[in-house]
Structure formats: C-alpha cells, structure tokens
Amino acid sequence: MFCNQCEQTTKGVCCVKIGTCGKDPALAARQDEIVAALIDASRYVGHSSDNAKLFEKALFATLTNVNFDCEKIRSLTEEVRSLVNEAAELRFDMQSVWTADDDIRSLKSLILFGLKGVAAYAYHARILGYTNDEIDAFYFKALRAIASLSDAESLLQLVMETGRINFVTMALLDRANTETYGHPTPTAVTTEVEPGPFIVVTGHDLHDLALLLEATKDKGVNIYTHGEMLPCHAYPELKKYPHLKGHFGTAWQNQQKEFKNLPAPVLFTTNCIMPPKASYEDRVFTTSVVEYPGMMHIGTDADGRKDFTPVIEKAIALGGFTEKQHLTGANGGSTMLTGFGHNTVLGVADKVVDAVKSGALKHIFLVGGCDGAKSGRSYYAEFVKATPKDTLVLTLACGKFRFNDLDIGEIGGLPRLIDMGQCNDAYSAIKVAVALADVFKCSVNDLPLSLVLSWYEQKAVSILLTLLYLGIRDIRIGPSLPAFVSPNVLKVLVENYGVKPITTPEADLKAILG
Ligand code: FS2
Ligand code: SF4
Fold it and tell me: ipTM above 0.95?
C-alpha cells in the first residue's frame, strides 16, 4: 500500500504495511481502485447532479477515518464504473501518481487530497439541499487533470483553483447550515452528563443530529455531542430541543479511551472513526458515508428517511449512568463556550475595531485546525495559555479541545477565547478577517492577525489551499508539515506565501509579537 494523505502517516513518510489509522493494504487497494475509477469516469461522463453526487460520496469515503468497509467501497466502485459505457477505455492506475516524479506527485496529491476535503463539505451541504454547479464540475475537471497534466506550472494553478473551489464550498455549507438551522449564537455547553439513557453523536453532520433529535424527542433519551459536533449546540433550530443536553468527551483521537464501557451508544455521522475496541464495539452505530465492518449502519430509505430505532433501543437497554457524571474538558473545566459564527462576531465588530484602535487589543490569533495523537500537539494549548491578556484567540475545529474548557478572561466585553465552530467554519474566520481588513483599509496580511494552524486530514488540506488562494501569508502549521509536500513544492509555499512550521510557543509568540 501507499498512503501518506494524513498527518499520522508512518514515520512521517508513508504508510506501506498498515495504516496508523487502522487501514490495511486491502482497503488501501480498494480506495486506490475507486479513485482510479473516478478518474476514468471523469473522462467520459458529464457532471449531472446524480453523477456529481456519486463522485462526491466516493471521494468522501476515501478520506481518513471515514469508511473502513472494503465491501462498501467495492460496491461504490462498481456504481462508478457502471456510469461508463463498456467500450470506454478504463486504464488509470493510481501507481502512476504515487510513483511519479516527486514534485508532480506532490502537486497531484495536493489536488486530490484537497478535492477530498471539498467533497466532504459539499456532501454536508447537498444533504441539506444546497448544491453548486461549479463545485460539481470541478470534481470532473480536477480528476481529469490528475490523469492528463504532467507539468508543474499547470498543476500548481490547479492547486490554487482547488483552494478557490473549497472557498465556494465552505460558503455554500455555511449558507446551508445557517439557512436551515439559524445563525449560531454564543452558547455555554456543559460537560456534565445527566443520569438516564443517552446517545452520543460524533462527526460533523448537523442534518443527522436534527433527525436524531426529532426521533428521540419523546423517548426519554438525552443526546450529547462529541468532537466536532460541539458547535451544533449554538444553532437555534438544534438547541431548541431540551434533550440536547451537553457535550461528552474531547477530540477524535481520545475516542477509544472515552468510549470505553460507555453506558450509551455512539452514532458516527462522519469522520473521524477509529477501529472500535471490544469494550464498546457493541454500541457503535454508523450512518451516511461512515462505515466499519461489523458495526451497525443506519441507512437511508428511498424517501431519504433514517430509522434510528436500533440506536434508541440500545440507549434504553444500556440505561446510561445512574448518577450525574461531573466530567470535564482537557483542563478540568466543565463548560465549553461555542457559537461565535461570522454573524455574531461581525455583530460586535465595532467593539473589536474600537479595541484595536485604542490599543486595548494588540493582536488576534487564529489557533485552529485538527487534533491528533502526536505529543507535539500540546503546543497549541501551551500557545493559547501563553497569549498575552491584550490579545484575542479565535479557534475552530477539533484541535480546540486541548484548551476550550479554559477561562482565559475577557477583553473589551468579549471572551478572549472565541470558538467559531467546526473546521468548515474557517469560512467565518475568513469573513471576519476580510471585514476587519475593510474597516482598516488594509489587506488581511496587514492586520494584527496571525494564523497558527494544526492539520490532520484532508479537510485541513483544502482549508490550507483556500487560505493560500486568498493570498494569506505567514501561516504557521504543525505539528509537522505534510509528508506529500516535496522539498520543491515546500520551497514555493515558503517563498510565495511565507508558510512556516511551528517551533515552540514561546519562540513563535515572540516572533509574531515582535
Ligand atoms: Fe477533527 Fe476529524 Fe473536522 Fe477533521 S474531527 S480531524 O475530521 O474535519 O477536524
Ligand atoms: Fe496512513 Fe493516514 Fe493513510 Fe491511514 S490515512 S493509511 S494513517 S497516511
């Protein structure tokens, strides 16, 4: 197998025998097969809405920690192949990408992995009925280009276009989420768990949570979010359910520890699923694009409905805790404040602007991105703890669970730590940055704003490409640089965009604040 698409790739180079994520060579081969089938099909079929939907799902299924079921990937591959006339020439082999010249492989990897991130975000939007022809067409264009292009200059242009399309996609998902569930409002979420039956929902999908909340509303079963589902508490149309009680646990990489002997089922709506341990595997349920062999999958019927009865029955049978559990976040705090989308933050933009003008607010940091298992990721909590009192910290995605239960005080009537939401809510952060640049009549790069990002999987790749497409410079990235970025491609990113690896919180803070 050859897989280096995520941050935990073996030895920081490539997974060749078995994936650190649990992916085995057979699954890696199936994933290569489906991507090759998509590349072949992209040469012969148009981007009708049905075709785009299938391409999107197939790409999403190959993201890290999403679908571990070889049989499901195989049947999805058959579906893709069935689009193509028998006489068509099917010949693409992913080995031609993995064994290409270092820089070409690197650029094609950036395009493919970024495209997977786009597919994930667009998938969530499509479920809510929001699609975009430009995004649909881009799947086909980018996949065709992976087969046909071999010059670095054209590939680099396509890398930037992937960033642009991801920006369009994040905007679409933002519109889908806020028009369907309302604009998030600041919400303090408890980490305590009430006695009685409950279900833990993890992943990223708001629609699945809404369906589950509706299905459980009279059942005496409480719902707790996990991981990237935390920001769901802030959406009016989701928080209106009184049995959406609180948040359980921290980020995805702690699930095997946190779900151990949990007296409740867990519903995985999207990534990140890890191989379930025996101590809780009888209570794992998957839905939409997530699947794991042997785990119960909640499918969708012909009318788009899902029957959550098995999850609800499991919750009732397990019964939940007998007493209230005083659980906490990573630092012992028992609340997590979330819900600062662009609507809320721009609503108080005058306060931020006044604070910057008066000198009360010296700098804004965006400390956001994925979490993961590497010990080097403690950098991000240390960084936040070390930020001076006259600075503001924006955050988003699952990396925040290392510090989002901390109370780091207030500035100008605002909390110093502002959670903007899931990883796709990077869109909110960009909107706020652009609005501030407008007020100060400067470019985003001239604002007292620094981006300190953590990456793990391919959605983070697509967000990084968006930031580069927007011309945002001097992004710090960690805990390590992507293995699929070749030295020459890295040189381009460093020289043109000032991308740099994180060092230590002290040194980076000193460099930023001068
Ligand atoms: Fe975190 Fe995992 Fe959100 Fe990533 S829960 S690493 O998928 O997209 O961020
Ligand atoms: Fe390795 Fe990541 Fe690929 Fe899994 S997804 S096989 S951990 S590089």
Answer: yes
